[in-house]
Each structure stands twice: as structure tokens, then as C-alpha cells.
Fold:
Amino acid sequence: MEPKQPNKEKALSSLYGGVPAPAKGKMARGKPRSNANPSIVLVDPKDKVAQPTPVTRHPPPPRRLPAKHFKRATVVHKPAYASPSVSVEEEMDDDEDENQQLDEDEENQQLDEDEIYSPNDEDDDNSFDHNDTMSEDDVLGHHQNNEVEQATMDISSGEDSASAKSKKKQRKEKSPKECIENSPAWEHFEKVMVHPRDDPNGAKVLKAKCNHCNKLYAYAQGSSTSTLNRHWKKCKHRLNKLERVKIQRRLGFKPINASANTNIPVGGDVGFEQAIIKELIAKMIMVHEYSFRMVEHEWFNIVMKYLNPLYQSIGRKAIGAECMRVYKKAKEMLKLELKDVEYISLTTDLWTSNQTLSYMCVVAHYIDADWRMQTRVLAFMELDPPHSGHVIADALWECVTEWKIENKVMSITLDNASNNDVAVRDLKAKFKFRRGAKFEDMYFHVRCCAHIINLVVQDGTACMNTLASNLRETVKYFKKSVGRMHKFVEICRGLDLRVGAHLALDVCTRWSSTYKMIATGLPYKEALKDYAVSDANYKWEPTSEEWKLFELIKPMLFSLSQVTTAFSAQAYPTANIFYPHIVSIKIALVKAMKHKNATYKQMGEAMMDKFNKYWAETNNVMVLATILDPRYKLLYV
Structure:
């Protein structure tokens, strides 16, 4: 039997396995009562000093804090003689942090006052096992290990707490400038240094440039980016790019009939761009001479909207301004290109429209860096009367100085009008005064070969006006009535004649039209004879002698037409083919002069007189061009 406890002891209990106080005279037998709390020791304060060793108790289990007040918590275990505490590391706002610290202080103070831990306040996972039968030695050994682990955890907890405080300090000390630099606006903007708009020569200032529309905004280093954020969220260029992702992209194939100089944007990744479409429409209007109002037509906009829903309608004034912008842009690019050109040849001509307005066009011909012949229109201007040689010379000189090619013009080609001769004389004086001895005026003026051939043929056909008059009136007679033409076609089918080209009417200003009229009328010679029998009103049937003369002069007129076509080419140079064609014409005229037919002979003589007027003297420039052609060499010299 255990010794009797002192009378002053109100209650005695060991930490684990101790004997509790007997209940009202009954001695404790066997194991302690099951409802005793092993973690509580009640000792008389007077006998506390007499205790041989301090009674230690097991530290309370970690308290569970509310989840809404923290993100990460570290539990710190302390010895039994220390007050329990909980160290919490969390990332929260300053207000929440202070409120949580106040709650923890109140809880710790309450524990210190009560020194009582109630397991009923926690969940089942944090409560003690009431049936624990560990011995006191095991408890003491386990407690020593807990003290070692506790020291380690205190150090780790202290480091974590210091680290958390350092992070909070860094976050609080982050400058506004760093926040501005990390603004989402800089994903759409970039900083550039540009000259002020009102002072192009002034010092450069800092601007914020939109990466989508290239718009500039005023910006100072470290200032607010609110304006920039508002812009990129509403930027139409950025929104259009986002919309293009939602629709099917077009295939990047160049049209089959598109020339190499159209500069149509192609490629698999080319999307819709309103600016590009607007520029292409402006070029289409200028090339095909469409009306500006075409862009306002209802069905034009329907088609464009169907092709791409992102298309925005354009007004006639807007497309007119776009045409001027494209013209000015192309003009500046051409000026840069002409700076690298060494020699330039000019051609010009004048004509009067059906509105009695006179125009003059100036065209430049040159060889580029890739040895390709280029042709560009430098000016298309209205020329006020009188169209004298001095007025023409002044207009040409103004055009040359505007393009800054005074030192590069090598020759100029005009027709054979008398006022052009005066204009060439004035231009020679201007160029010689500007360039001095470097200017060579011997080959400066080049007469238009096609115009000379036109004059030669017109002098020859003047002798056969009566010859061609019957055929000319015949064509007019059939073209005035659909019934006559229908009857004439039926006669052709009855004679088993192939109905080919329609009857053509000649024009006095185009000698080649006379050849075309004769060439289309000869196949219907027999059909015209039958039609004259069936129609009493038809009185202009050509005679058999006239048909024979048409067949005689047709080859010569055909050769002249071929020469004119060759001289009028634009895709290749024509100086090297000048002498071969001129020699062929002269040979044909010599044969006509020796023919037995008086009309044909007279026509040949008239054409030879005009030919000798312009080409009696040789042009050495044309001779050199022919010699340099491997096909001819010295054959025609």
C-alpha cells in the first residue's frame, strides 16, 4: 500500500501514471480513474518549494487558427514552463496582419492566465488519447527530444519570420517608377526620341509610340500611363488585327494577268488592311480612268463587304485625296530613282481634246541599274494658247528643272511641226547656257520616225483620193443600216465566202486606217458585185481597175504599217532597228517609181519627195546603234 499523502495536499496527480486524490475516504486502487485529465496537476502553493524536482507537463497540441486569417502557419513548440505561442508567416494586407496579431495576443494571454488546456475546444485530430499508458521515463526521454526539436524549429521559425518581414519591406518600398515601367501599356508602346512637330530642327523629345498605329503621345520618364492604356484598348489597328485572326485568311497568289510592276502585296500571312485596299482602289481608278464616285456605288460596296466584312466605305472626296497622295508618293520615289540615272531622253507631244483643251505630255526614257529600259511620265499638263515654240520651250524647261535633270537630258524627240523647231532652238540655248561645253546639240533633236512615215503616206494617198472614195462611201452605206448589212451577209453566205473582219472606215488623221479599209474590203469584192445588182440605191461599187490597184498598193502600205508599229514600241529600244526599216521603205518606194501603172508611179514619186526631206542625211547615232546590234553589224551602213 502506498504511503499516505500529506494532509495539506488537496490533490496529487503525476503527469503520467500518478495516483489521483481518493474520493471521500476511499483509497485509490489499481489504475487511475479514467475521467482524470493527465495534463493537469493541482499543487498546493505552500508545498511547491518542497518538491524535489519540478513537475513537467507535456506541451499542449498546436492550436488551429482560422483559415481566413493566414496563408501559411508554422507551429512553435516550447517547454512546459513557457507559455504556448503560435508564429504565423503570411502575405496579407497590413490591416489583416494587425488584426490577426491582436487576436493571437489575446489568445496567448488567456492561456497564460488559465494554464488550462481543454481538449474539447479542438478537433479530434488535435486531442490527447485519454488511455495513454506511457511511463514517466518514456515521457521524460521523449520530452528531451522535443526540446532539441523545439530549438531547431525556433531557429527555423525565426528565419522564416525574418524573411517574411524582409519581403514585406521590399514590397512596401517598391517605387512608383518601377510600377509604371511594368505597366501593360509598354507591351503596345515603345519610347522614341523625335523632333517636335512645331520645331522640326529643335532638340528631340521623348514620346510614346504606338506599335499598332504609330501614333505619338507625350510622355515623361516615370509619368502616368493612363492615357496610353486608354489608347491601346481602343486602337482600331489592334482591334482589326484581332478580328483578322477570327476570319479566314486569303491565299497569297498573284493574279495571272497582273504585271510585275503592280506591287500587289502577296504572301500566305497577308491579312486585311484598310489602308492597302484604299491605295489599290486609288491606283485602279487612275489606271482605268474610273470616276471617283464609283466608290460610293451601292453594289461596289456590297461586293467589297462580301469579300471582307472589315472593309469600310470610302467617299469620293477621300479617294480623290488618296489618288493625290499616291501620286505624290510615286513622284518622290521617282525623283530618288532618277538621281542614280546618268542619261535621260525625253519625248513630248501636244494635242487638243474634244473639249477644245490643249494638253502636253512629257515622257522620260532611261536605262536603270539592271540595264532595263524604263519609261516614266514626268508631266501631263494643260497648255494655254498660243502654242508657239517659245511657250512649248518654257513649259519643257520648267518640267526639267522641277525634276532636277538638267544635266542628264541627252536628247528630245518631237514631231515635225514648225513650232517644235522653234521650241528646240530655244531649248538648245538654255541647255548650252546651263551645261556649257559639255552639251552637244548636234544630236539633241530627234524627229519622230512614226510621224515622218505618216507624212510620207499621206502625200502618197493624196493621189488616190478618187480611187479610195468609192470604197469609203461603200463602207458608210452599209454601216448606216442594219438591214443592208444583214442582206450583205446573206449574200456572202450564198457565195460561200467566209465572213471575217468587218468593213473598216478610214480616218484622215491615221494613214494606217486607209490600209485597213483596203485590206478588209478586198475579200468581199464578189459579194459587192452581187449586192449592187439587188440594190438599185447602191451606186459606189469600185471598178475592176480600182480593185487591181488596191491589190497593187496593199503590200507597200502593209510594210509601212509594220514599220510604224515597230517604231511605236515601248517595251524595247528602237534605235537599233531604225536603219533596217528605213532601208526597206526606200526600196519599196524605188520600185513604185519604176512601175508601169501611172497612178502607182505618181504615188511613189510623191512619197519619195517627202522621204528625202527628212531622211536624206544620215543620223550617226542611229548608225552606231545598228552596228552594235549583232543581227545587223555593218549590213545597212
The CA atoms of residues 446 and 627 lie 19 Å apart.
